[in-house]
Amino acid sequence: MTQLFSPLKIRGMQARNRVVISPMQQYSGDESGRATDWHLAHLTRFALGGAGIVFVESTAVEKRGRSTHGDIGLWEDEQIAPLARVAKALRDNGAVAAIQLGHTGRKASTQTWWHGHGPLGEADAARGEPPWPVVGPSPIPVGNGWPTPQTLSTTEVEAIVQAWANAARRAREAGFGALEVHGAHGYLVHQFLSPVANQRSDRYGQDRWTFALEVAEAVRREWPEDRPLFWRVSLADVIDGGLDFDEMVGLLRALKERGVDVVDCSSGGGIASYPTQGRSVSNSLQFRAELAGTLRAATGLQVMGVGLIIEPQQAEAHLQAGQADLIGVGREALYNPNWAVHAEVSLGANKEYATWPQQYRSYLIRRAAAADALRSPNASRSNA
Ligand SMILES: Cc1cc2nc3c(=O)[nH]c(=O)nc-3n(C[C@H](O)[C@H](O)[C@H](O)COP(=O)(O)O)c2cc1C
């Protein structure tokens, strides 16, 4: 039994293995921020491909907290039904249906990647994608050329905390089995934590953890006891004076006390600027593995490692080394949605295609036999 393909139970959630499809924005929501047939098809492929947990992309808790016009959201009840359809398809095909909730704060109002991923401007408005006012803890833009955020008043911050709770309630009603707070990549939660982006004097600035802790409490109030709560962090900030690792350990201990179960260890998307003051940070789990392992030991949280996992053996090695409990796969799954079942074969754990969809199984067994026969030295003679 490999660790990657051993089942996982957290609270009442049972996953068939530890392969997690990392949240990936598709910029393909409809004009009301609802999931579309694209999301259904795109995400179901990963469940058919054997992943244990499949995450729906960052889903906005407020309309102004989207990053692009194509983002999906859960800021109103009309957005529940199309996501419920996705959640059901994931469950029906053996995966835990999971969703990430997010708010981009001062990094909102951006172009899709295929239009440049900079701040929206006049050319985008001419295309029907106008910019909208962005908000943040303090009037400090992400970088040159980025809009200066409107400072949120204390009551507006409280309303956003409530928006997280409302979105968690909608995710529950949509039938998701796991939920993640996007606390990384320089988005709103990360902005409040950062001494660089948060220079407030109210209680959200006097203690920079306050917003994150209130979000955790608000989400937990609406998120059922028997379903796990994940929290994504950027382990490595890329700016002097940014969040340091020791503070992250303390914060995660406090989040654990408020019902967070899993820390999803991402990095980058820094709090500073585009580009991050000439500094960059590797996106690979290899780069962060030691920190992830330290965090696991120091907090007692389950750890999800993510970043440039390409080979199944890499994933298995991180689990065996005690650096992670779950492995997130992003781009590699876009390249090969069957990454999980292929990984299982490659690690020698999938006998007779047992975990492939039954609609395919017997054909694949016969395909393998036919392919072996073709590859055998006598094949060309017998075929001749
Ligand atoms: C197309 C795309 C969209 C992404 N969208 C999100 C997102 O919605 N939320 C998030 O936390 N990370 C997002 N990410 C980051 C991934 O979840 C993942 O952490 C990152 O790609 C590193 O893993 P990988 O090397 O396996 O791709 C996105 C990445 C890609 C490629």
TrEMBL record:
PANTHER family, per database record: NADPH DEHYDROGENASE C23G7.10C-RELATED (PTHR43303:SF4)
Superkingdom, taxonomy of origin: Bacteria
Cofactor needs: FMN
Pfam families, alphabetized: Oxidored_FMN (PF00724)
InterPro entries, alphabetized: Aldolase_TIM (IPR013785), OxRdtase_FMN_N (IPR001155), YqjM-like (IPR044152)
Keywords from the UniProt entry: Flavoprotein, FMN, NADP, Oxidoreductase
Residue ranges occupied by any NADH:flavin oxidoreductase/NADH oxidase N-terminal domain in the UniProt entry: 3-346
Name this protein carries in UniProt: 2,4-dienoyl-CoA reductase-like NADH-dependent reductase (Old Yellow Enzyme family)
Database matches in SUPFAM superfamilies: FMN-linked oxidoreductases
